[in-house]
Design a protein that fits this description.
This protein has 401 residues and is α/β, with parallel strands linked by helices. The chain has two domains: 10-45 and 288-397, Aspartate Aminotransferase, domain 1 (Alpha-Beta Complex); 66-284, Type I PLP-dependent aspartate aminotransferase-like (Major domain) (Aspartate Aminotransferase, domain 2), CATH 3.40.640. The chain contains 14 helices and 13 strands. It has a seven-stranded mixed beta sheet with strand order 2-8-7-6-5-3-4, sandwiched between helices. A four-stranded antiparallel beta sheet has the order 9-10-13-12. A two-stranded parallel sheet has the order 1-11. Helix 3 packs across helix 11 and helix 5 packs across helix 10 (253-266). The longest helix has 27 residues, at 286-312. The protein starts with 9 loop residues before the first helix and ends with a helix. Bound molecules: pyridoxal-5'-phosphate. Residues 38, 97-99, 123, 125, 173, 178, 206, 208, 235, 237, 242, 247 line the site of pyridoxal-5'-phosphate. Pyridoxal-5'-phosphate binds next to helix 5.
Amino acid sequence: MGMYDNKFSKDVGSFFRSPVREIFKRVDLNAIYSFAGGYPSAETFPLEDIRRTMSEVIDRYGGKAFQYGATQGVTELREAVAARYAVPVERVQITSSSQQGIDVCTRILADPGDVVLTSNPSYLGALQSFRSYRTDVRGVSHQNGPGALREAYEKAISQAEADGKRIKFLYMIPDFQNPSGESLTLQERKVLVELARIHDFLIIEDSPYRELRYDGQHIPTMYSLDPDRVVHLGSFSKIFAPGFRLGWIIAHPDILDKIYVCKQSLDLCPPVFDQYVAAEFLGSGRLDANLKKTIELYKSKRDLMLGLLEKHMPDGVCWTSPEGGLFLFLTLPDGFDSVRFYDRALDAGVAYVAGVFFHTDGSGVNTMRMNFSFMSPERITEGIRLLSSLVREALDSKVSQ
Ligand SMILES: Cc1ncc(COP(=O)(O)O)c(C=O)c1O
């Protein structure tokens, strides 16, 4: 027993390390073919514009840009986010990234043992947060379509009620989900909002990829379907740069008031200088101009990856075709173990994230999450060729099965 073992809180016992971040510790992402991280491409960061904007911010705000700021975020940024979503500024809280948004919402809403419903699979960072507060996380697997979705969620809700548990909230990533890349249709969103009304729980809508759409039409947010029952989380990480660590929460003012107090104990205020820079980018249209280029780049990388998978992956492997976001999800034949296969892939110089880590119940052993934003087209091409040949070899030899 270590000397601190009886010193830590009970919550610490439910922390778990992100297997994704463990991969980053093991390898240099630039030295291998990495489909693993959810990293944007560094070439999308508008460095010269950022340099210019930083100096404009210093000229305009002087020392104020480096002072403590309001807990809700600086007015300029709250107003810019409110305008983008056409919501009142009273409904906008700036966060130190959307990961903080997830954590702070869980902290103010859930007690240990409360049920948090989510899709199965779901975002790993959210699962870490939910578990750290010792909630009862229940992932719901379902076939596509509003009928199948309703049936699966009704079953999970009835089960929670039969267990005498309270469902505190449903956490969903409706746009280009991490890890699957898939989106909920408008009908599916409506079903979930209706279930939330009937069974009186809230919905946390986490949508950092929403603006990275490459095909098709935007689908209304779940927040727009019921602004008093849905809490919307957004982020600058994928549309600007993750290093700024800035996001936002849009919610009813009564919910924001609790978040406001909670955030005082977390970080007092989001980073002030970064917020002014982000506000300038949004307000001046520079963010949108840059985003347009980013969307073109990612669309071509997605298309490249889909074409390469079609060409090189052996029969029996299938994948999602996302209309946006940063990921697609591979399903290998039953019996393929993508955790066991991982070491072999890494030894050969290619990384992905085993899909099982995104599942709440140990399922998805034969799945992989693949990122298409991070690497150059050349490296994506070589990486998919390599991974495909390794998968073929494994399926032929059945070593992984
Ligand atoms: C669904 C989802 N939510 C939240 C985050 C965290 O984003 P941020 O950088 O804003 O903390 C990520 C990051 O990959 C994500 O995929």
